[in-house]
Amino acid sequence: MRRRHLLAAATAAALPARAALGQGTAGAARVLKFVPQADLAVLDPIVTTAYVTRHHGFAVWDTLYGFTQDYAAEPQMAEGHSVENDGRRVTIRLREGLKFHDGEPVRAADCVASIRRWGARDPLGQVLLARTEELSAPDDRTILFRLSRPFPLLLDALAKTSPPVCFIMPERLAATDPRQPVQEIVGSGPFRFLADERVPGRRAVYERFADYVPRAEGVPTWTAGPKRVHLDRVEWHIMPDTAAASAALQAGDVDWWENPLGELQPQLRRNRNIVMEILDPTGFVGIARFNTLHPPFDRAVIRRALLGAVDQEAFMTAVIGSDRSLWRDDVGIFPPGTPLANDEGMGVLTGTRDIEKVKREIAEAGYGGEKVVLLVANDFPTLAAIANVGAEMLRRVGMEVEVVADQLSALLQRRARREAPAAGGWNMFFTFWSGLDLFNPGVNQALRGTGERAWFGWPTMPRMEELRAQWFDAPDLAAQQRLARDIQAEALREAPYLPLGQYFQATAYRRGLSGMLKGPPLFWNLQRA
Amino acid sequence: MFAYVVRRILATIPVMAVVALFVFSLLYVAPGDPAAVIAGDQATPDDVERIRQSLGLDRPYLVRFGAWVFDIMRGDLGVSIFTNLPVVTMIQQRIEPTLSLMVVTLILAVSIAVPMGVVAAWKVGTWMDRAVMGFAVLGFSVPVFVVGYLLAYVFALELDWLPVQGYTPFSQGFVPWFENLILPAIALGSVYIALIARITRATMLEVLQQDYIRTARAKGAGQPSILFLHALKNAAVPIVTVIGIGIALLIGGAVVTESVFAIPGLGRLTVDAILRRDYPVIQGVVLLFSFVYVLVNLVIDLLYTLFDPRIRY
């Protein structure tokens, strides 16, 4: 009895203290506690393509154009634009009253410097700047592009949400070398980053920027429309341990966990205080990337033959389980549901899997039993899952497989090596890209065919480069879609990578939050019921 | 004694120099590329190479090592490749949670394990002895993370008695600070309690056979006096040694415990830095841990003289 009384007294003493801390409750009404997918290590969204830094970027900075759920560009900081001289002269007018977080007004010169810095890193930006003869700020509210030839994707480039995003920074910071991170975070967006409260690996904090001016009209959708803020403070709590994050969400210590691990999702779904929702309908697409410099994958015929062995259902089941609402297995070069998705040549991926036929084809193509070195990141469960299925697939078709499993950071270094696999190089690696990073030829780095200047794997595909150049000049969506069919056919003929299926990452948040927008985690429009 | 302490502190300098050389060389040859991690998955090889150059990672080994040693001599541990913050600042931000966890664990473990070991030795062969030894085997056998998850599930999620994760700084009050540390300290301390309890029992068993204990009994000394005044003091040297050695266990265990309970301490900082290959942070933290370990050994050596006056330096 006495022991029980002691325990009860200790519990009673503990509970008020917990309440005072806001633990075990959803927290204060205008404070949101968010668990991002990873630590926010790098703050500059131009230096890195890490998704977590992109999320941070959308909170802190604004963009000239927003991206709608229909994959279209809509004015955001821009009031509007005019196109003259057959598309060779584009003038963008800034909205009035825009301010940076240091109180300075946003000027066209800031936008010009930001576009230049972003364009030095971004593939689409590089195409834009290559066609730009003049990029200037005739006055504080006017941005002028004078192009050597029309670039119909100009506004899409400025609106794109795949990293790096064209965020608008003050000119003095945008003048920083794009390889070096900016030394100060001065935003133009709806939330101000509180650098003093940042503890890397633990916490990042944002507060509402009172002087932010949302668009007056429109409907919030993805990164477009009015960015009205209903929260005073957003706290990011870094929790690398997924069990700890799950427990924190269930206990009400945090409000929102961006990426619950697949195996923990059933438990969260059973909790009636928690809502599970898929925010990004473009999901994540798995790819197996070939190194085209060395045998056996220097031969397109072997790469192409392996398309016939890909069982996307097996890959996706290994990643996220058997619930078909969480994945798709009819995935080609462009993610299903996006404007350029098409069925050109898809039979090779969706038809009956015939392993014996694949075996015959790779043997006829001259596969001589060379060892195939696979890079497997064993510190990321989803990457390890697709890699293990991939290794088994190669073994089934009779290939000699050597798995090199290591931490991702070590594999990234090996991935950059062009040497033969036996000399420390590689033959194949696996990764996932957001659907938005693959949804058109302008952003899909894995489709580049520029040889040694292409993305890791270094394929040389002159026809693909031609088609890509034509796609940039396509005057409208219908023309883009026609070219997308050719591009998909060429991609399946050259097979620089194998599409392994698409899964949808559910996010989990406490019931009572409303106004959550689709796309990457966005903190405007969000409020408690 | 004073001269001894000064000599020992000075002796840490060559030790730290060897550690520095060892850590730097190991990281140099270890696979991993922070430039590739910073650039992100979709960066092109050219982007990665340009970032590598801008970070100075393409410089020769000796140049990098020389620059690092020169900075250390000036008390500068460098700047994190990723966060762009000074390593000293990052350590300062993280040292309180780890220190708190270790101190609470140490106090908890010693105050539980020593009496357990004493009682087990006193009641050797009885059910109490077996219970203590059974607990010790369990403590050794069950990994810290399993204990941590079980504690979090039962006491935080099911019973809702204690916070499930996180850390509250001491400056925000003793109760919330302590509350956040109870479960992690028990989880981390389980191995430590097992270790100290076993050593205490074994040492006490040996001491209790000594003639002076028989003499004390013959003089009519009470059991508590025999156990805690006569026997325990003479058994203290090996126990203190094990407590000291166990600090290394705590440092290692803190990495896991901090992950399970989302405590933003040095352990987690080390893991994150290793995963990203954030060389300046890894080097700084390892140097700090080495320095602490050398100091702990010094303190243990000095404590010997307190428990055994025959020991002199």
Automatic annotation (TrEMBL), chain A:
<protein>
    <submittedName>
        <fullName>ABC transporter substrate-binding protein</fullName>
    </submittedName>
</protein>
<keyword id="KW-0732">Signal</keyword>
<dbReference type="GO" id="GO:1904680">
    <property type="term" value="F:peptide transmembrane transporter activity"/>
</dbReference>
<dbReference type="InterPro" id="IPR039424">
    <property type="entry name" value="SBP_5"/>
</dbReference>
<feature type="signal peptide">
    <location>
        <begin position="1"/>
        <end position="19"/>
    </location>
</feature>
<dbReference type="GO" id="GO:0030288">
    <property type="term" value="C:outer membrane-bounded periplasmic space"/>
</dbReference>
<dbReference type="InterPro" id="IPR000914">
    <property type="entry name" value="SBP_5_dom"/>
</dbReference>
<dbReference type="GO" id="GO:0015833">
    <property type="term" value="P:peptide transport"/>
</dbReference>
<comment type="similarity">
    <text>Belongs to the bacterial solute-binding protein 5 family.</text>
</comment>
<dbReference type="InterPro" id="IPR030678">
    <property type="entry name" value="Peptide/Ni-bd"/>
</dbReference>
<feature type="domain" description="Solute-binding protein family 5">
    <location>
        <begin position="74"/>
        <end position="436"/>
    </location>
</feature>
<dbReference type="GO" id="GO:0043190">
    <property type="term" value="C:ATP-binding cassette (ABC) transporter complex"/>
</dbReference>
<dbReference type="Pfam" id="PF00496">
    <property type="entry name" value="SBP_bac_5"/>
</dbReference>
UniProtKB/TrEMBL annotation, chain B:
<keyword id="KW-0813">Transport</keyword>
<protein>
    <submittedName>
        <fullName>ABC transporter permease</fullName>
    </submittedName>
</protein>
<feature type="transmembrane region" description="Helical">
    <location>
        <begin position="235"/>
        <end position="261"/>
    </location>
</feature>
<dbReference type="InterPro" id="IPR035906">
    <property type="entry name" value="MetI-like_sf"/>
</dbReference>
<keyword id="KW-0812">Transmembrane</keyword>
<comment type="similarity">
    <text>Belongs to the binding-protein-dependent transport system permease family.</text>
</comment>
<dbReference type="GO" id="GO:0005886">
    <property type="term" value="C:plasma membrane"/>
</dbReference>
<keyword id="KW-0472">Membrane</keyword>
<feature type="transmembrane region" description="Helical">
    <location>
        <begin position="99"/>
        <end position="122"/>
    </location>
</feature>
<dbReference type="Pfam" id="PF00528">
    <property type="entry name" value="BPD_transp_1"/>
</dbReference>
<dbReference type="InterPro" id="IPR000515">
    <property type="entry name" value="MetI-like"/>
</dbReference>
<feature type="transmembrane region" description="Helical">
    <location>
        <begin position="9"/>
        <end position="30"/>
    </location>
</feature>
<dbReference type="GO" id="GO:0071916">
    <property type="term" value="F:dipeptide transmembrane transporter activity"/>
</dbReference>
<feature type="transmembrane region" description="Helical">
    <location>
        <begin position="177"/>
        <end position="197"/>
    </location>
</feature>
<feature type="domain" description="ABC transmembrane type-1">
    <location>
        <begin position="95"/>
        <end position="304"/>
    </location>
</feature>
<keyword id="KW-1133">Transmembrane helix</keyword>
<feature type="transmembrane region" description="Helical">
    <location>
        <begin position="281"/>
        <end position="307"/>
    </location>
</feature>
<dbReference type="InterPro" id="IPR045621">
    <property type="entry name" value="BPD_transp_1_N"/>
</dbReference>
<feature type="transmembrane region" description="Helical">
    <location>
        <begin position="134"/>
        <end position="157"/>
    </location>
</feature>
<keyword id="KW-1003">Cell membrane</keyword>
<dbReference type="Pfam" id="PF19300">
    <property type="entry name" value="BPD_transp_1_N"/>
</dbReference>
